């Protein structure tokens, strides 16, 4: 066997081919690594992915060695890859759009989007012709540029809003919806405009009118097929491949082939393949297993493979060597392009905000966010250069301007969060931190006259000493139905209405009469005020929280959504009131108590001369238990109440287990800090109430949650009321695992056991949660409202 001839031309070509492929593959992976590293470095500044990708693309694409890699054939191949990737990108973008919004009355988000687009389009159309973006005035370029500047990159904006965790807020939802509207309308206008002003590499030999007619007919046929035929095929494939079963390969191939066929209909007559994919996508079904599969696979392909190549191509085409930084016109075009995109949007959103009643800072922020541009706008900037419409310098200016429209967006989101925090409840009152010289204010909710006796007895045991006393805001919680809304009479003052519904007025009069009778006999140290929370269940929690904040209450007491039947068991409960309770627990500016009434209201009168009510408070650990203990301190002041404090302690042999309870990770420092606070709180309570014999004390040494459960069961029937904390414990071994089988998580593990159907029918339970700073935004709920 002879050795391979080194002079063999086939061997040389193969070696050169492998070398070129290796260089390109290495360049791809280098681009991926650099994009990820840069994104990691920019993460503290909350910059979106496109920022780091654009920066790396401009940097790497302008290296001399990179320009040496790409000869004419390689650059052409790269352009083919980019075009295919953009077809996929625009197809997915189209699927996620709803074309039928054009036939609906404009909503708030649509009005904001249209106003921003219109103002930007007018501003761009009036200014850009004088900035010499092209050597001579071209109507098609001016219209396309104005439309692109008035657009919004909805995928970039949506990802930015959701990554900053404000997507559930009212302004977040408005921004996302307005961005979708703006992106849809602008891309639709560009697609329609392409029919009148097509871009062709080679002349077709036909008149412009004939070209436009052919593309219009082809696009109409494509739209009809996508809107009418595709649902039939897609629904058939979805029905043949239900969720949970592997999708048949033949059906998948059929569906994908049909989508490709639809996308290519109008391209036969010269319509842009990229815009054709978008037009086909907007009329294809967005729901169903096939559509979701296509969207997920294409998005994965784009994020892992296409985007690094896309931004490398962008940097390669935006050649800094032809940027012409020495000319003032270059900088004027750059800054004015950015100003048009931002000022135009801001002007439109501020004007629409005036019509819709938005505050101007929020309207201003809306405009800045809606000026965000993205991948499609970058592609248009480069495509205009490759088509010979604009110079490389102008194309680079456009790319840099697009980059700056994204950079400022995280700062705008941070500003929105900052303003929302300022408008969030500023006082977080807890009974533990309350000044002893000030009266305690409690918002006490009732569902109807049946809750009045319980509310009165609760007020009696909570009154404490006559000085400083207690203020009770007895609040009727009534659902606003259509029938009640029809009877409302608006008052002379703004935001005041009078309820004339007979059932509501009679119910309120009964509650007021019972409460007033109690006050007439027990006025010493007790102030009573009647309030009304009249709203749908969806907004009742917000009304209660606003009342609590305005009144600076320390505690909100809400009735449990389940009621006791005649046989002593609890019914299934009212889902509306359960929703309200959960939302108040989440958003309240003060402590919240859920009162499970099982006979507390049946006590005719709690005497102040002899013991008539046995009450217990269970103390394990955590902030909620400390708050429950603080409330129990007020109950201990009542001479007719015999209070027993029961402390659950972990056996010494279980201390180590408590630190590795279950599979939970335990922060030892946090646990030790909580234990220190528990000991300090309990020592103060013990010295003030237990040491003098006013309150009975009992200890239970337990090893695990099973012993906790059995101990709770042993308390059955011994007390008329048991006060417990909802949670807030740092992985206590005494409650680990109890959350797994809770029927009502809003009551916490201990409260859920005590209020269970198999527990005593004569023991009421008060579950207390201290003010809770929750959500994903460090003290601000992720569904905050600011508009």
Key features?
alpha/beta; two-stranded antiparallel ribbon; about 55% helix; about 775 residues; ten-stranded mixed sheet; single chain; 27 helices
Structure description:
- By secondary structure, the protein is α/β, with parallel strands linked by helices.
- The protein contains 27 helices and twelve strands.
- It has a ten-stranded mixed sheet, with helices on both faces.
- Helix 22 (575-587) links the parallel strand 6 (555-559) and strand 7.
- It is elongated.
- Residues 654-665 have low confidence and may be disordered.
- It is a multi-pass membrane protein.
Q: What proportion strand?
A: 5-15%
Please tally the helical runs, counting DSSP H or I stretches of 4 or more residues: 27
Poorly predicted runs: 654-665
Instruction: Give the CA-CA distance, first to last residue.
Output: 83 Å
Rg, alpha carbons: 34 Å
Q: Taking all residues together, what is the mean pLDDT?
A: 85
**Structural class of the secondary elements?**
alpha/beta
Helix content: 55-70%
Q: Widest sheet: strand order? A: 5-2-1-6-7-12-11-8-9-10
Biggest sheet architecture: 10 strands, mixed
Q: How many beta-strand runs?
A: 12
What spatial form do the alpha-carbon principal axes imply?
elongated
GO molecular function, one term: antiporter activity
Keywords: Ion transport, Membrane, Potassium, Potassium transport, Transmembrane, Transmembrane helix, Transport
Subcellular location: Membrane
Organism: Lithocarpus litseifolius
